[in-house]
Design a protein that fits this description.
Structural class: mainly alpha
Number of domains: 1
Largest sheet: none
InterPro entries: LeuE-type
Pfam families: LysE
Main location: membrane
Distance between the termini: 27 Å
Order of helices and strands: HHHHHHHHHH
Shape: globular
Number of helices: 10
Keywords: Cell membrane, Membrane, Transmembrane, Transmembrane helix
Low-confidence stretches: 97-103
Helix content: over 70%
Strand content: under 5%
Protein name: LysE family translocator
Length: 204
Protein backbone atom coordinates (compact mmCIF):
# COMPACT_ATOMS: atom_id res chain seq x y z
CA UNK A 1 0.00 0.00 0.00
CA UNK A 2 1.42 3.34 -1.03
CA UNK A 3 1.29 6.69 0.75
CA UNK A 4 -0.85 7.97 -2.12
CA UNK A 5 -3.40 5.25 -1.43
CA UNK A 6 -3.42 6.16 2.26
CA UNK A 7 -3.83 9.84 1.43
CA UNK A 8 -6.89 8.97 -0.65
CA UNK A 9 -8.24 6.53 1.92
CA UNK A 10 -8.22 8.83 4.96
CA UNK A 11 -10.64 11.57 3.78
CA UNK A 12 -12.92 9.09 2.02
CA UNK A 13 -13.02 6.91 5.11
CA UNK A 14 -13.66 9.80 7.48
CA UNK A 15 -16.60 10.87 5.33
CA UNK A 16 -18.12 7.45 6.04
CA UNK A 17 -17.29 7.71 9.74
CA UNK A 18 -19.00 11.08 10.26
CA UNK A 19 -22.12 10.34 8.22
CA UNK A 20 -25.14 10.97 10.50
CA UNK A 21 -26.19 7.35 10.86
CA UNK A 22 -28.07 5.86 13.83
CA UNK A 23 -24.97 5.26 15.98
CA UNK A 24 -23.67 8.82 15.56
CA UNK A 25 -27.07 10.40 16.15
CA UNK A 26 -27.43 8.30 19.30
CA UNK A 27 -24.02 9.50 20.57
CA UNK A 28 -25.18 13.11 20.05
CA UNK A 29 -28.45 12.50 21.89
CA UNK A 30 -26.74 10.68 24.78
CA UNK A 31 -24.26 13.53 25.26
CA UNK A 32 -26.99 16.16 25.14
CA UNK A 33 -28.91 14.52 27.98
CA UNK A 34 -26.01 13.06 29.96
CA UNK A 35 -22.41 14.20 29.41
CA UNK A 36 -19.54 13.88 26.94
CA UNK A 37 -17.64 11.05 28.60
CA UNK A 38 -20.68 8.87 29.23
CA UNK A 39 -21.80 9.27 25.62
CA UNK A 40 -18.25 8.73 24.35
CA UNK A 41 -17.88 5.53 26.37
CA UNK A 42 -21.27 4.32 25.14
CA UNK A 43 -20.23 5.00 21.56
CA UNK A 44 -17.36 2.54 21.92
CA UNK A 45 -19.94 -0.25 21.72
CA UNK A 46 -19.73 -0.14 17.92
CA UNK A 47 -16.00 -0.87 17.79
CA UNK A 48 -16.17 -4.63 18.30
CA UNK A 49 -18.86 -5.19 15.61
CA UNK A 50 -16.94 -3.03 13.13
CA UNK A 51 -13.67 -4.80 13.94
CA UNK A 52 -15.36 -8.19 13.41
CA UNK A 53 -16.85 -7.04 10.11
CA UNK A 54 -13.48 -5.77 8.90
CA UNK A 55 -11.92 -9.10 9.89
CA UNK A 56 -14.63 -10.98 7.97
CA UNK A 57 -13.96 -8.89 4.89
CA UNK A 58 -10.23 -9.43 5.25
CA UNK A 59 -10.77 -13.18 5.45
CA UNK A 60 -13.00 -13.14 2.39
CA UNK A 61 -16.11 -14.09 4.34
CA UNK A 62 -17.61 -10.63 4.02
CA UNK A 63 -18.10 -11.10 0.29
CA UNK A 64 -19.75 -14.48 0.93
CA UNK A 65 -22.15 -13.00 3.50
CA UNK A 66 -22.86 -10.01 1.27
CA UNK A 67 -23.74 -12.47 -1.50
CA UNK A 68 -26.05 -14.58 0.70
CA UNK A 69 -29.61 -13.36 0.32
CA UNK A 70 -30.92 -15.34 3.28
CA UNK A 71 -28.18 -14.21 5.68
CA UNK A 72 -28.38 -10.59 4.58
CA UNK A 73 -32.17 -10.54 4.91
CA UNK A 74 -32.18 -12.16 8.36
CA UNK A 75 -29.61 -9.73 9.77
CA UNK A 76 -31.34 -6.81 8.06
CA UNK A 77 -34.72 -7.50 9.65
CA UNK A 78 -33.24 -8.17 13.09
CA UNK A 79 -31.28 -4.92 12.90
CA UNK A 80 -34.31 -2.99 11.65
CA UNK A 81 -36.46 -4.35 14.47
CA UNK A 82 -33.89 -3.36 17.08
CA UNK A 83 -33.52 0.14 15.65
CA UNK A 84 -37.29 0.59 15.75
CA UNK A 85 -37.39 -0.74 19.33
CA UNK A 86 -34.72 1.71 20.54
CA UNK A 87 -36.47 4.53 18.70
CA UNK A 88 -39.80 3.66 20.30
CA UNK A 89 -38.22 3.60 23.76
CA UNK A 90 -36.76 7.07 23.17
CA UNK A 91 -40.05 8.34 21.74
CA UNK A 92 -41.86 7.10 24.86
CA UNK A 93 -39.32 8.56 27.31
CA UNK A 94 -40.90 10.49 30.23
CA UNK A 95 -41.73 14.16 29.92
CA UNK A 96 -39.57 16.84 31.57
CA UNK A 97 -41.51 16.83 34.83
CA UNK A 98 -39.94 13.42 35.47
CA UNK A 99 -36.30 12.48 35.13
CA UNK A 100 -35.74 11.72 31.44
CA UNK A 101 -32.11 10.77 32.08
CA UNK A 102 -32.82 8.13 34.72
CA UNK A 103 -33.73 5.14 32.58
CA UNK A 104 -31.21 3.33 30.43
CA UNK A 105 -28.37 5.78 31.12
CA UNK A 106 -25.65 3.52 32.54
CA UNK A 107 -22.49 3.19 30.47
CA UNK A 108 -23.01 -0.56 30.10
CA UNK A 109 -26.53 0.01 28.76
CA UNK A 110 -25.31 2.60 26.26
CA UNK A 111 -22.46 0.35 25.11
CA UNK A 112 -24.83 -2.59 24.64
CA UNK A 113 -27.28 -0.43 22.70
CA UNK A 114 -24.55 0.93 20.41
CA UNK A 115 -23.17 -2.60 19.92
CA UNK A 116 -26.53 -4.03 18.89
CA UNK A 117 -27.30 -1.18 16.50
CA UNK A 118 -23.91 -1.59 14.80
CA UNK A 119 -23.97 -5.37 14.56
CA UNK A 120 -27.55 -5.35 13.33
CA UNK A 121 -26.69 -3.36 10.21
CA UNK A 122 -25.54 -5.75 7.45
CA UNK A 123 -24.82 -2.87 5.09
CA UNK A 124 -21.66 -2.18 7.09
CA UNK A 125 -20.22 -5.45 5.80
CA UNK A 126 -21.29 -4.53 2.28
CA UNK A 127 -19.58 -1.14 2.65
CA UNK A 128 -16.36 -2.70 3.89
CA UNK A 129 -16.50 -5.32 1.14
CA UNK A 130 -16.86 -2.66 -1.56
CA UNK A 131 -14.74 0.09 0.02
CA UNK A 132 -11.59 -1.48 1.43
CA UNK A 133 -10.46 -3.40 -1.69
CA UNK A 134 -10.23 -0.13 -3.62
CA UNK A 135 -7.27 0.88 -1.44
CA UNK A 136 -5.33 -2.38 -1.46
CA UNK A 137 -2.41 -3.44 -3.62
CA UNK A 138 -3.12 -6.93 -4.94
CA UNK A 139 0.57 -7.46 -5.65
CA UNK A 140 1.30 -7.25 -1.91
CA UNK A 141 0.09 -9.45 0.99
CA UNK A 142 -3.48 -8.44 1.82
CA UNK A 143 -3.55 -9.25 5.54
CA UNK A 144 -1.19 -6.43 6.64
CA UNK A 145 -3.06 -3.99 4.42
CA UNK A 146 -6.44 -4.88 5.96
CA UNK A 147 -4.94 -4.57 9.43
CA UNK A 148 -3.71 -1.07 8.55
CA UNK A 149 -6.96 0.02 6.90
CA UNK A 150 -9.02 -1.49 9.69
CA UNK A 151 -6.99 0.22 12.40
CA UNK A 152 -7.29 3.56 10.60
CA UNK A 153 -11.04 3.12 10.17
CA UNK A 154 -11.54 2.34 13.86
CA UNK A 155 -9.34 5.27 14.86
CA UNK A 156 -11.40 7.62 12.70
CA UNK A 157 -14.56 6.10 14.15
CA UNK A 158 -13.36 7.07 17.63
CA UNK A 159 -12.92 10.63 16.34
CA UNK A 160 -16.45 10.55 14.92
CA UNK A 161 -17.87 9.45 18.27
CA UNK A 162 -15.95 12.26 20.00
CA UNK A 163 -17.23 14.77 17.43
CA UNK A 164 -20.90 13.86 17.87
CA UNK A 165 -20.59 13.54 21.65
CA UNK A 166 -18.84 16.90 21.76
CA UNK A 167 -21.59 18.54 19.69
CA UNK A 168 -24.24 17.05 21.95
CA UNK A 169 -22.47 18.10 25.14
CA UNK A 170 -21.86 21.58 23.74
CA UNK A 171 -25.58 22.10 23.24
CA UNK A 172 -26.57 21.18 26.79
CA UNK A 173 -26.88 24.84 27.79
CA UNK A 174 -29.16 25.48 24.84
CA UNK A 175 -31.28 22.39 25.43
CA UNK A 176 -33.92 23.30 27.99
CA UNK A 177 -35.93 20.38 29.47
CA UNK A 178 -38.68 20.75 26.87
CA UNK A 179 -36.17 21.06 24.01
CA UNK A 180 -34.35 18.02 25.34
CA UNK A 181 -37.63 16.12 25.43
CA UNK A 182 -38.32 17.12 21.82
CA UNK A 183 -34.79 16.13 20.82
CA UNK A 184 -35.30 12.74 22.47
CA UNK A 185 -38.49 12.24 20.48
CA UNK A 186 -36.82 13.50 17.31
CA UNK A 187 -33.95 11.05 17.67
CA UNK A 188 -36.43 8.30 18.49
CA UNK A 189 -38.38 9.10 15.34
CA UNK A 190 -35.17 9.13 13.32
CA UNK A 191 -34.22 5.67 14.62
CA UNK A 192 -37.69 4.30 13.85
CA UNK A 193 -37.43 5.77 10.35
CA UNK A 194 -33.94 4.28 9.96
CA UNK A 195 -35.26 0.89 10.99
CA UNK A 196 -38.11 1.06 8.48
CA UNK A 197 -35.71 2.24 5.78
CA UNK A 198 -33.38 -0.65 6.53
CA UNK A 199 -36.25 -3.15 6.43
CA UNK A 200 -37.52 -1.84 3.09
CA UNK A 201 -34.13 -1.33 1.47
CA UNK A 202 -32.92 -3.45 -1.39
CA UNK A 203 -29.59 -5.22 -1.29
CA UNK A 204 -26.65 -2.85 -1.92
Amino acid sequence: MTLTMLALFLPACFALNVAPGPNNVLAFANASRLDFWTAFAGGMGRMLPFALMIALVGLGLGAILAASTAAFTAVKYLGAAYLAYVGWRMWRAPKPETDITAAGSSVSTLIRRDFLIAIGNPKAIAIFTAFFPQFTDLSQPLAPQYVTLGALFLGLEVLAVALYAGLGAGMKGFLTPIRLYRLNRGVGGFLIFSGLTMALSERP
